[in-house]
TrEMBL record:
Name this polypeptide is given: DUF1353 domain-containing protein
InterPro entries membership: Phage_CGC-2007_Cje0229
Lineage, highest ranks first: Bacteria, Pseudomonadati, Pseudomonadota, Gammaproteobacteria, Alteromonadales
Domain of life the protein comes from: Bacteria
Pfam families: DUF1353
Length: 148
């Protein structure tokens, strides 16, 4: 896996939580022997872990969760892969980052159970994707490389 280069977002987009991070450079990940990319400028708010579950699995910005959460959030925005594949990839990336099997299984079960409410992009998500496309174009890159 690639190195994750983030910075705290100065201004979080309206479809994110207050504590969002922004990619400083593109992030590469592999699925089915193909390299995929999450673009520079993408903001995400860590793993979606309710406060009551912090004791069981940890906080949203646990370093071992960051890459898996980034890719999972990106795939929920772009639908570049099916939801079930995105959820399974989340589990695989957690395990590759050193997350225990039991914790990764709980987290995968949670995204399978609750992810359906976030899979369909609402107006704020669509607006965010359009803004992101504009930033990518302004940066001299092609949005289609990222599944946009």
């Amino acid at each position: 896996m690639d190195v994750l280069n983030l910075k705290p977002a100065r201004i979080s987009h309206s479809n994110k939580l207050n504590n969002a991070y922004e990619l400083v450079e593109d992030f590469a990940y592999e699925h089915d022997c193909k390299v995929h990319w999450v673009p520079k400028f993408f903001q995400y708010d860590g793993a979606s872990i309710p406060k009551v579950a912090y004791y069981l699995v940890g906080t949203p910005f646990n370093p071992r969760y960051m890459q898996a959460a980034l890719v999972h959030d990106w795939l929920y925005h772009t639908h570049e892969l099916d939801r079930a594949v995105a959820d399974h990839l989340f589990y695989i990336m957690l395990r590759q980052s050193g997350v225990r099997h039991s914790t990764a299984t709980i987290m995968k079960y949670a995204v399978e159970l609750f992810g359906r409410w976030y899979w369909h992009n609402d107006a704020a998500d669509i607006a965010y994707k359009e803004e992101l496309e504009g930033l990518i174009l302004k940066d001299g890159r092609n949005p289609s490389v990222y599944g946009l």
